[in-house]
Amino acid sequence: MADYPLTADKIKQEFKRAGIHFVVALPDRVTSHHLLKGLIADPDFKVVQVCKEDEGISICSGLYAAGHKSVFMMQYTGFLDSINAIRGVAVEGHFPVCMVVGLLGKEPDVAPTQSKKYGVKIIEPILDVMGIAHQLIERDADLPKIGQAIEKSFGGPAPSAILIGREPR
Amino acid sequence: MMKRDEMLKVFVRQRKDEIVVAVYMAAQEITHIQPNDLNYTFVGAMGQGSSHALGLALGRPDKKVVVFDGDGSLLMNLGSLVTIANQAPKNYIHCLCENGCYETNGSVPIPRVGELRFAELAKAAGYKKTYEISDLAEWERELPNILKQEGPVFVTLKVEAGETYPENFPRLYSVEHREKFRQALAKS
Fold first, then answer.
1. What fold, for B2-187?
2. Which residues have a Cβ under 8 Å from the Cβ of B122 and sit 6 or more positions away?
3. How near does any CA of chain B get to the CA of A5, in Å?
């Protein structure tokens, strides 16, 4: 595992450093096995599993209104499915919903907009047109961007997206 | 069948320091009947009230959270019943204003109107206690028990439109009021 470029445990540490306790999640094939299961097993985190992604946008908003920081993990397909809640709640309501979005099927070290996978290719342009800041995480060297994105989101307050470009292990 | 505003007036007479999450027409009415900084109305997209309320309930387990949801709204977010039951917040009271229609969007009937038993859905999902109330006197009598009950609790309230209140949707979706709520809750 020493040469593998993205470490799940280090992502978890970044969440802890950023003051995240609540993780709202729907399983995403990119992050389920090594990251989400690790978060569920870690008593420092409270994982709230949802049945549909738009619920997660609103739960994170309620948590913010109650004074808590959270992140919301989902697959890019779930992001696409919950666009209206992201628009109506997170963007127009200025809620700091910090989305961790797995780009399932993205080719390693290929920019998302250059992916051959249509669903992956359209994610960053959609985020841009919605005015949502985004960061791509593909290697351990990218990990400081996680804390920066969370800080900026809650400082706004405004939604943001952390795009996970390969499976963390 | 209860007039919704009369049902809400009974509630506010017994309200102490509960957080109230209200959606659409119920929200419209409660902001007039009882203006209160702990009224949370910024649910943003249809069906999302129960999920905002869950975030609040998990974030503030010391406060009761009462959500006045709509039947059309809940149909758009039925999975939230399972999510809420799975988290089992003791401080969560889910009141469903069942009027049988999408009142905000032209009063078109909901699917399975009059046949669907929402309280049975909630019970099957795993809510600890459920009620079905269609009479104002019964609501007034049961409410103290409902507010004391360990959640999640689900209450179907059979309602119809009552008095008309001025529409002020910009107020319901005002970021400024949401921030006032946040500050009031932090002090509460």
1. Rossmann fold (3.40.50)
2. B81, B85, B94, B130, B154
3. 34
